[in-house]
Structures are given as C-alpha cells and as structure tokens.
Amino acid sequence: MGLGPSIKMTTLHHYRCPLTEALAKEKDIEFTGIIVDGVSEVCDDKIYTAKRVGDMAQMLRADAAIVAIDAWGNHHVDFVNVIEQLGIRGIPSVGLSYIARQGRLVCTNQYVDCVIDFNKSESGYESCVVGENNLTDYDAMKAVALVKNKLRKAGKPVSETELTGEE
C-alpha cells in the first residue's frame, strides 16, 4: 500500500520538478532550498527525522514551506509529522500528496490544514499508469499561491499575483 506507478515521480520528473521551477520563478519568495527526507519504517525514526527537518527549516529561517510526497499510507505518517514539526516552529506549510479515494491520510494533526490532492484519475484509485497521478505545473502553481496566502496572513510582505503561472 502506498506505492504505485501512477503517483511515483520518475527521475525525469525530479530533474524537471514543477514545484522547483515554480518557486525559482517567483519574485516574491526567497526560495531557500530543498530538504529531501526519506520515509522511515520505525515510528521513532519518523519522529526523529521530522524533527530534524523542522530544525533545518528553522535554521534556514524559513517563513513557510511546501511539503510534497509521492506515496500514501505509511508514507503519510512521515508527511504529517514533518508538517507538524514545521508548525510547532511557527513555519506554516502547504502539503502536496496523492489523496483521492485510495490514499486518504492515515493520521493528521492541527497543523495539517492545507493539502493539495494531485489525483488526476476520475475513479480516485491508483491507475498503474506511470506518472498519471503526480505533481503537475498547475499543482505547483496552486501550492505557491497558497503558501503566499499563508505568508500574507502571517504579516509577511508578498504582492498579489494571479494564478496564471506568469508574472
């Protein structure tokens, strides 16, 4: 459970990551970097690595974060823990995940308040077609707009832009 070819992001997808491209183009957001965190099998390890991600984001003085994952089930525990650790440190976040009918969150917390579902299949189930249900340019554009909205609510200076993908 949680692994399927339609939601897995291929190497080519990572080289041309829509989220990285959208953030790099943003003039209002200082794109500090990417933290890559693996998925642990042991609950204590999940908590430990989530805390380290929170610590790194805090040390980088991140004002907000976008958390993306390309699986569900057990992987969502790591995803939710990272969002929680960011929230505990006052760093608002926007999540991106496959949810649909098949990949609903197995846990949550008070900080998981904004998750974009990148399911593309009408049925809401894993289609087994490589890359069919993963992060797209439009999903990335929504995530950037939502994180900018969270920054505005936190009193950070961010200009108004439309969801066009262009400035």
UniProtKB/TrEMBL annotation:
<protein>
    <submittedName>
        <fullName>Glycine/sarcosine/betaine reductase component B subunit</fullName>
    </submittedName>
</protein>
<dbReference type="InterPro" id="IPR015417">
    <property type="entry name" value="Gly_reductase_pB_sua/b"/>
</dbReference>
<dbReference type="Pfam" id="PF09338">
    <property type="entry name" value="Gly_reductase"/>
</dbReference>
